């Protein structure tokens, strides 16, 4: 993602006076104004229910307006947009951001930095998650001869050290018997820089988080090399709040979480409208937003703090420790002291336990028509038939879940395998090769051949 331009940083500095603490203190609106500052990442689109979409819907402001009418206080929300989680953490530990959203690895760094500076933070809710890890993908150039992780030996791989995408890269290489510190040359770069490096040839592959892999694939600037869901380890984005703010303004934090719950419901009920809204705010193609946030998208949106996600955080701690990004800490104690689902439990009310136990349905193939309507299919072959039957301009986007991991991908960017009468999609060529090795007679076919066979 692009670094915040100096002009934008100056604007933010002017917006939030250095002397003004945000934790519910009086702000520029006068002595009876309580200012709440929210840090978010507009282009990290799995945080939209606590950022971009929530802001556009105005739900938090509505919740605070009702509270203000009861309290006799004027509440003001200040939204601050950043490219990554690191500056949000820096502002939180400086007392200038009250609530922030970011990915799982940055959340742990947020917790570590808060403890180090005696400005502790709490993980209070979740935005989007994928229980298998499909939010992170390793991609390579379209014309690259790289087909598997083993092909990365001796190559230059761009990633953002300390991000979940870096964690995916490290774990995936280790699973293949490669040493991430010796067998590749890791380039520590911001996503936008890495994307440019991939295009110029100065990087052989790129390991990044949502929405970069999908965006580059959609633009024809990259092809998938490795589906993060192959690790079968959850990855997610969540909401963190300063502990002092949560203790001073617990009702305001619960108002934020109620607003997030409402935004999550809106996204589920109106996924196309939500994708269009986020696309307009971020400049990302709506088709890419929908790949991740759509009705059958890679991400599941749910504010509850599921045990599987907490367990995954504990497995992430050693990865960050090995990179020297957190000190030697006991993962169990460290994570348990950071996670606090009390506020979101209260915001949900009686329905929390039911929501906590709910499981995401299996992804289905989906067609986004040119007229704005969508249709889903149990079998990818049925989607192919629908695409083949549609006229020019009748299809806006088509999505299919990977045969082995369930990760949604663009149908025309997938690797297709013909196995008897079945047409099976895969995100990565190595996954397709594994399938073919175990199914005699199966073979890869092009997108055009798959369409022809389906019709």
TrEMBL record:
SUPFAM superfamilies assigned to the protein according to its UniProt record, in alphabetical order: NosL/MerB-like, Periplasmic binding protein-like II
Keywords: Signal
Pfam family, one: NMT1
Signal peptide stretch: 1-28
Limits of the SsuA/THI5-like domain: 88-274
Top-rank lineage group of the source organism: Bacteria
InterPro entries according to UniProt: SsuA/THI5
Claim: Secreted is one of the keywords in the record: no
Record bears the keyword Signal: yes
Stated name of the protein: ABC transporter substrate-binding protein
Organism encoding this protein: Streptomyces zhihengii
